[in-house]
Design brief:
With 248 residues, this protein is an alpha/beta fold. 45% of the residues lie in helices and 12% in strands. It has 9 helices and 5 strands, in the order H-H-H-H-H-E-H-E-H-E-H-E-H-E. A 5-stranded parallel sheet has the order 2-1-3-4-5, sandwiched between helices. The chain starts with a helix and ends with a strand.
Length: 248
């Protein structure tokens, strides 16, 4: 405690035992996982109702006690993993968790959901599916880091490949060596990306955001499709550009 207290200005809370400390860490990540799972499920429902999720969340956030979680891909080595530690331990003491595992199923499904939605939108836009190129921007599990562990973007890419699409993966942070040749995902440098009919902005790294929508727009053949998972360029994309646009 003294060591951490010497470098942490906010102070240090001393749990009564290591078991309590570890349990607190696990349930904090589990709580975040469930909150994201709820908005992910709402996003799926609202999409079927043809209601924009961002519009709904912005309206809901006008209420002071609404928790502003956003839909998206949940990966990494904490939020996407810790709930399984907890549920495994629960099963060892003869309790089968319902809510926690349901949230995990929803969040693990989102990569497949976005891939399937992309293919449906391509069909609606009159784009060929087989052998069409899709530029996927961002592979890491979150923005501005190089960690691809448990990244649901990798699931998204594999699903697109199963549909017969040729995927060009672009990520200035990701490491090809860590991805491994067996992943069948090979990185293309940002400056070597060529236009394709479809772009999926999966992880909005600052390096992408700084180049702006005009840069991304030039990399989409028209007519084309932009799948903007986190609604980064929603305002720019819906104003007079000749491309279909979708976001969670």
């Amino acid at each position: 405690t003294d060591l951490y207290g010497s470098v942490v200005d906010a102070g240090v809370y001393q749990a009564p035992s290591i078991r309590v400390a570890e349990a607190a860490k696990v349930i904090e990540n589990t709580q975040r996982d469930l909150n994201i799972a709820l908005v992910n499920e709402l996003a799926i429902i609202l999409d079927r109702l043809d209601i924009n999720t961002s519009d709904v969340l912005e309206a809901a956030e006008s209420k002071w006690n609404f928790l502003p979680f956003k839909p998206g891909l949940v990966g990494g080595h904490c939020i996407g993993v810790d709930p399984y530690y907890l549920t495994h331990k629960a099963q060892l003491v003869d309790y089968h968790p319902e809510v926690i595992l349901a949230g995990r199923r929803i969040n693990d499904y989102m990569g497949s959901f976005i891939a399937t939605k992309t293919v449906k939108l391509m069909s609606q836009a009159g784009l060929d599916i087989a052998n069409t190129t899709v530029n996927v921007f961002g592979l890491t599990f979150k923005e501005n880091c190089n960690d691809t562990r448990n990244s649901q973007v990798l699931v998204l890419i594999r699903e697109l490949q199963v549909f017969g699409l040729e995927v060009i993966a672009v990520d200035p942070w990701a490491d090809q060596e860590k991805l491994g040749a067996e992943s069948n995902i090979f990185l293309t440098p940002m400056d070597e990306v060529t236009p394709a009919p479809v772009a999926v902005l999966a992880v909005p790294h600052q390096a992408f955001y700084e180049r702006g929508f005009s840069w991304l727009d030039r990399l989409i053949q028209k007519p084309g499709l932009l799948v903007d998972v986190k609604s980064v360029f929603r305002d720019e994309a819906v104003l007079g550009h000749q491309l279909a646009y979708w976001s969670l």
